[in-house]
Specification:
Blueprint (H helix, E strand, L loop, with lengths): L5 H13 L23 H11 L10 H12 L18
Length: about 90
């Protein structure tokens, strides 16, 4: 199987490097829209990429895992702004 993600990732990582991106996580949606059929070839393409290239490491992840990674690895780059949760009256 020809790895269909290579061309896309080479282009995106080059653009991030040119922009001096401060982040070590790049999140992309593969389906490019909500409620799309999952691409059955994607897991094999990710596996093949990770076997071929040392960087960047690809991982298929859900929203909670992605946000946890941002919080863990990049919280010093974000400003925490306390907010009132609507309909609860709580401050978080």
């Amino acid at each position: 199987m020809n790895n269909f993600i290579d061309k896309f990732l080479f282009k995106e990582t080059a653009a991030l490097e040119r922009a001096n991106s401060p982040y070590d996580i790049f999140v992309m949606t593969w389906s490019m829209a909500d409620n799309c059929v999952i691409d059955a070839d994607l897991p094999e393409a990710v596996k093949k990429w990770n076997e071929t290239y040392a960087y960047p490491r690809l991982k298929i992840a859900g929203t909670a895992e992605i946000l946890d990674a941002y919080e863990k690895n990049m919280q010093s780059k974000f400003q925490l702004i306390p907010a009132i949760l609507l309909n609860t009256g709580r401050m978080d």
